[in-house]
Amino acid sequence: MRTSTGARAGQYVALLAYLVFLAFPFLWLISTAFKSPRELGTLHPTWIPRHPTLANFRQAFDEQPLLHAALHSLLAALGAALIAVVIATPMAWVMARRRTLLARAATGWVVVSQAFPFVLVIIPLFLVLKNLRLIDSLAGLVLVYVVWSLPFALWMLVGYVRAVPTELEEAAAVDGAGKLRTLVSVTAPLLAPGIVATALFAFVTAWNEFFFALVLLKTPEKQTLPVVLTHFIGAEGVADLGPLAAAAFLATLPSLVVFALIQRRITGSVLTGAMKS
Predict the structure, then answer these.
(1) How far is the C-alpha of 58 from the C-alpha of 121, rounded, in Å?
(2) 78-99 b/e with 16+ CB inside 10 Å = b?
(3) What is the pTM for the complete model shown?
(4) CA-based end-to-end distance of the chain
(5) How would you write the pLDDT of the chain (277 residues) with one tens digit per residue?
(6) How would you class 48 by CB atoms within 10 Å of its CB: exposed for 0-12, middle for 13-18, buried for 19 or more?
(7) How far is 66 from 63, CA to CA, in rounded Å?
């Protein structure tokens, strides 16, 4: 009993330490966003601002087109998430149901492709987009985001498809439903939690992405929010810390709101599906 209690206490301590490790940068970001320039320059920083101010937020919006950049990020993230899910759902169904050597090889390639660094693929992607005349365009950026998020989206959805009983699809086939009708009417509704989770992953990945947007978007008016945030850093590498923290804090809010809105729905759907099966 003592060993079990000690092990559980150790688990809670480790979990608490991990949560503190994750929360520290975000809490410090919030604290910095509401501090005055005088507090930011002090040699003895504090967690809670002594004199909270919104001046950093006003300065951030005055100096950079944050709303315009946020709109571009939103369009790119929504477009990438929607297209990735539409493409990945039928592909995942085929890869999960066809236990052939080709399907296994495709699954292995999906996993291996996630190990490719950005620098390795940026030059081929740049040349392809240049031939398609999609450089410096939001459509080209969305295409890159779809290609980059599709392997992991496939890997996620394959697991969800395999969790759907094949007996349901066989029953639909006996009733005369074709493969497309079975996928749309039988399998897809059961995959709703997985589809939502996959779309969320693609959205957050595209919303926070920086490297591709920096390389592919040259016109300042077309840049996304992560790229615009770098404009708060001067030519000599000195950051305008207050406005930068305020803008970065606002940039993290959409991801947090999306998680908060659908987390309970995803968890409830997964638990319901598990109890039914």
Answers:
(1) 38
(2) bbbbebbbeebbbbbbbbbbee
(3) 0.80
(4) 35
(5) 555 677 777 777 887 887 788 788 888 888 888 988 888 877 777 888 888 889 899 999 998 999 999 999 999 999 999 999 999 988 888 888 777 677 667 667 766 766 677 777 788 888 888 888 889 899 999 999 998 888 888 888 888 888 888 777 778 777 777 777 777 777 778 888 888 888 888 898 899 999 899 988 988 888 999 999 988 887 666 778 889 899 999 998 888 877 776 665 555 444 444 444 4
(6) exposed
(7) 9
Residue pair 140/132 in contact by the 8 Å Cβ criterion: yes
Can you tell me the distance from the alpha carbon of 210 to that of 89, in angstroms, rounded to the nearest whole number? 27
Residue 215 tokens, joined: 């390389």
H helix intervals, 98-191: 101-113, 118-131, 138-163, 166-174, 179-182, 188-190
